[in-house]
Write a structure and sequence with these properties.
single chain, mainly alpha, 3 helices, 44% helix
Length: 89
């Protein structure tokens, strides 16, 4: 392979790497993965997600909806009545 062909090939490879990086930043950048956009807010009464070791923020407010209470265990209801964040299903 002559020197000119090597230079053209190296330039094409570098250009494709830079172009792919730019496209990757545009598609997978920090701003593209936002979970919630501005708009109307709604409140959720679902149980918190699995504990990752971090202390929960805010105060615990139990879900006293009849449909929710029907499927709740006695241990969970006891924890809610004591003002604790439930740790059992």
């Amino acid at each position: 392979m002559n020197l000119t062909r090597k230079a053209v090939l190296a330039t094409a490879m570098a250009g494709s790497m830079l172009g792919g990086g730019a496209i990757g930043v545009a598609v997978f950048g920090a701003n593209s993965g936002s979970a919630q956009t501005t708009g109307s807010s709604s409140s959720s009464t679902a149980a918190p997600a699995a504990d990752n070791g971090a202390a929960p923020s805010g105060t615990f407010k139990p879900n006293e909806d009849a449909a929710h209470e029907k499927g709740e265990s006695a241990q969970r209801e006891a924890q809610e009545n004591a003002g604790q964040r439930p740790t059992v299903p």
